[in-house]
Each structure stands twice: as C-alpha cells, then as structure tokens.
Amino acid sequence: MKAMVVDDSRATRMILKRALSSQGFEVVEAADGRAALDELTKTGPVDLALVDWNMPVMTGYELICEVRARRELDRMAIMMVTTETEATQVQRALDAGANEYVMKPFTEDVLKEKLLLLGMGRE
Fold first, then answer.
1. By C-alpha distance, which of 56, 57, 67, 58 is closest to 96?
2. What is the pLDDT of residues 91-122, one digit of tens each?
3. CATH number of the domain to which 85 belongs
4. What is the number of structural domains in the chain?
5. I want to staple 12 with a disulfide (CB 3.0 to 4.6 A). Which of 7, 46, 48, 65 is the partner?
6. pLDDT tens-digit readout, 3-37
7. Beta 48-51 vs 2-6: how paired, if at all?
8. How many C-beta atoms surround the C-beta of residue 18 within 10 A?
9. pLDDT digit string (tens) for 28-66?
10. Within 13 Å and on the Cβ side, how many CA atoms surround 80?
11. Which domain holds residue 87?
C-alpha cells in the first residue's frame, strides 16, 4: 500500500514515515497541501494520506476539500494528524471528508490503532 505524509514539519514527516513503513507502507512526502495535490494530480491517488491542518500555501483542511471534490482522488483514505483539538475543528475535518483524526502529540500505538480502524494496519 502507498501512503502520503503531508506536513510542513520535516521531523513530523520523518516520524510518520517511519511508523507507516513499519506497517508495510511505501511512503511519499509533501511539505504542504499544494505540493501534495500537485503530486497526486501527477501520480494518482495513494491508499492513505496523513495530513496536518496548519500548513503554509494550502492547509490540510483545504487539501481534504480539494481531494474529495475530485472523483479520481476521492477513494483515498484521509487521516488528519494535527494539533487542532477543538471539537468543532475535528467535526469540520470529518465533515470535509477525513476518515480519521489523530491529535498531536501521538504515539505509534495510537497511529496503529487508527490504521486498524481503517482496515490498513497490522496487529
């Protein structure tokens, strides 16, 4: 399976990439929503996108809205991974089309649990 990690923090991308690789994913990275959308437009959908909310150029929320508006990308599972903890923000992300929501800081076990919920993790 293929995953995309979209976060403006290189350290966060590395942590998520390592965790996803240990779960058998091939991982590509993008530093903002626009770069992610450009890559997805060129290469097609990934199985899973882990997306930060607060990024320059294009936010994760805007990226989710764009992905869900495009039929060729809409089948991707999307997990919002962010510091946004307000219930209204969580609901906005889910309403926009996120399948799961993980709040930073997170543990690898929490990430594995969410992957299992999406039918994409290993025990």
1. 67
2. 999 999 999 999 888 888 999 999 999 999 77
3. 3.40.50.2300
4. 1
5. 7
6. 999 999 999 999 999 999 999 999 999 999 999 99
7. parallel
8. 11
9. 999 999 999 999 999 999 999 999 999 999 999 999 999
10. 28
11. 2-117
Contact 110, 102 (CB under 8 A): yes
64: three-class secondary structure by DSSP:
helix
Cβ–Cβ under 8 Å, residues 53 and 93: yes
Distance separating alpha carbons of residues 58 and 77, to the nearest angstrom: 19
Tokens of 56: 């320059």
- Around Cβ 104, how many Cβ atoms within 10 Å? 15
Q: Which pairs from 65-73 meet CB under 8 Å and 24+ separation?
A: 65/96, 65/97, 66/33, 66/37, 67/37, 67/40, 67/97, 68/96, 68/97, 72/44, 72/45, 73/40, 73/44, 73/45
In a domain, 49, yes or no: yes
